[in-house]
Design brief:
Blueprint (H helix, E strand, L loop, with lengths): L9 H19 L14 H4 L3 E8 L2 E7 L7 H14 L15 E8 L3 E2 L5 H7 L6 E6 L2 E5 L10 H11 L6 H4 L3 E5 L1 E5 L5
Antiparallel strand pairs: 1-2, 1-3, 3-8, 4-7, 5-6, 5-7
Length: about 200
C-alpha cells in the first residue's frame, strides 16, 4: 500500500477500535485472543497496513506501540499493537484490569514512509511540516519515530528533532552534526469517544 488508500468510514473506525479494546480485555483477563475472520471484514482490514495504538488515561500517555512498515493485515496489526501498548511499553507498568475502563484508545493508520532528501540541517527544518508529518530518524541500526500528534506537545521543529534523537538513544543535537536518514509519513488518526 503506497499511501493510505482513502479514509475509513465511521463504522470501519469503530470496528477497529472494538478489535483493539476486545484484544486488551481478553489478554488482561487471561483469555486467548480472538481469531479474526478476515474474510468477513472490509477490504481495508484485510490489506497489509501499518498502525500505532496509543493508550491514554485522563489525557496522559499510558502506552503506545506500533509498526512503521506494513507487514500484516491491518486488523491483525491493530490487534497485536493494542495488546503490546497495554502490556509491553517499557515506559509504563502494564495496564491493569481495574484501570481499563478509564483507558482511551487511539489508532493511527500510517502511510508508507518516504525518504526526505535534504542537504543540511537548515533544509531539513524547512521541509518538515508540523502537525502533518510523522518523522522517522535513522542512524545506522538505531531508529525512532514520533507520530504527527507529537507536534501538539513539541511544536518547535528543533525541539521535535532533539527529542527524537534522545528517543533513539543519541545526543539531542546529533541531527545537526550528522546527516541522518529521515523518513516522513502521514496518519489517519481516530479515537474512542470520550466516556462520560
Amino acid at each position: 500500500m503506497k499511501k493510505v488508500t482513502g479514509f475509513m468510514n465511521q463504522d470501519e473506525r469503530k470496528a477497529l477500535l472494538t478489535i483493539a479494546r476486545k484484544a486488551i480485555e481478553d489478554v488482561l483477563a487471561g483469555r486467548s485472543l480472538d481469531s479474526l475472520d478476515l474474510s468477513e471484514m472490509p477490504l481495508v482490514f484485510r490489506e497489509n497496513g501499518a498502525s500505532f495504538v496509543t493508550l491514554s488515561r485522563e489525557g496522559q500517555l499510558r502506552g503506545c506501540i506500533g509498526a512503521i512498515e506494513a507487514y500484516q493485515p491491518l486488523a491483525l496489526d491493530v490487534q497485536e499493537h493494542a495488546v503490546a501498548a497495554a502490556t509491553e511499553d517499557y515506559r509504563f507498568p502494564p495496564v491493569s484490569q481495574a484501570e481499563l475502563p478509564y483507558i482511551e484508545i487511539e489508532i493511527s493508520r500510517l502511510t508508507k514512509p518516504d525518504k526526505l532528501e535534504f542537504k543540511d540541517s537548515d533544509e531539513l527544518l524547512e521541509k518538515l511540516r508540523p502537525g502533518i508529518d510523522g518523522v522517522v530518524l535513522r542512524n545506522g541500526m538505531r531508529r525512532a519515530t514520533f507520530l504527527p500528534q507529537v507536534w501538539e506537545k513539541v511544536s518547535r521543529k528543533e525541539d521535535f528533532l532533539d527529542h527524537l534523537c534522545i528517543k533513539m538513544g543519541a545526543h539531542p543535537s546529533l541531527w545537526r552534526e550528522k546527516t541522518l536518514d529521515v523518513f516522513i509519513y502521514q496518519v489517519e488518526e481516530f479515537r474512542e469517544e470520550q466516556k462520560i
